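Margin note from the TA: students keep mixing up input and output lines. Inputs are the sequences; the output is the structure of the whole complex. Example:
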Amino acid sequence: MDMLIEKIKCEGIVLSPSVLKVDSFLNHQIDPQLIHEVGREFADRFSSSGITKILTIESSGIAPAVMAGLHLNVPVVFARKRKSLTLINDLITASVYSFTKEETSEISVSKKYLSEEDNLLIIDDFLANGQAALGLAEIAQKAGSAVAGIGIVIEKGFQKGGQQLRDKGFRVESLAIIDSLENGMISFEETTENMGELIR
Amino acid sequence: MDMLIEKIKCEGIVLSPSVLKVDSFLNHQIDPQLIHEVGREFADRFSSSGITKILTIESSGIAPAVMAGLHLNVPVVFARKRKSLTLINDLITASVYSFTKEETSEISVSKKYLSEEDNLLIIDDFLANGQAALGLAEIAQKAGSAVAGIGIVIEKGFQKGGQQLRDKGFRVESLAIIDSLENGMISFEETTENMGELIR
């Protein structure tokens, strides 16, 4: 996705060979116009998948998920990382290990909002080791919901999550796939970059 | 705002005389079409205020803030409740006490994204005791940013936050103001309800 790749090139900051900071438009400050287009792109890619609901995780998944939900005209459910006091009963939970934070947290969704009739699109801002997406897929499975696919804004292709999810049979659509952050440079996977070039 | 009030009447669940659960469309499951209209309404009300940026707080503030940002064509910044590992330097912080969770948490925004040139619209999903909005206003003040107003999706008019913010001189625009949750009934403030009736 051209607009997104340009934005990453202009504003992404390489903090280390594994950490890319995109907090100027995606996960601290948000560019609503860009994320609106990100949502449209997810909706286009999954337009014929019969999606009934989007499942994401707080906090940075919410903006792209809600924009995709706007275009697909389906509700969005976000998993919580902490239990809320007004949301205590009938939770479906999964454990998610964060390599960045080096801690395991429990994520949860109310049973009320996922059912056997649902065909879910899982959306998240980043895909690195795939733990969050796997946790969301586990919640979907426990609810008896189908997972039509996983939409990711930025995939770190050099980490193992994407391959792992595809090996498990999930359709993963990442709008930008980063090949390497070595030497402070952001390199994109050729297909993503070429798709960008073609659109431009 | 008619559409919102109808939704609260249909789907809001009164858990106690002070707690209204609206997790079917606002803060767990999200109705993107409704929140798109909520964003449009905020944008309309603050269209002549010269807003340069929206400031909100994770997680439930993000969806309405991003939709308002889409309509006002300005960036959105969300304050974090926990420090991120990739976001450690140059933070502006404020302490926020949650009456629901009975705990104080520190909220933070990167200095990079707020400046003396900014004229902010603060957005949140709920206004009860006003602690989150006050914390966001404190962050704005520490950044030297002006606050043009505060946009709230649902105000609990029987709690003290709204009055406190208005007494401090803030322009507070709440799209639905709830007068009472006594006896399991949701009563709206007359002006909000009437505005709903007029639009209908």
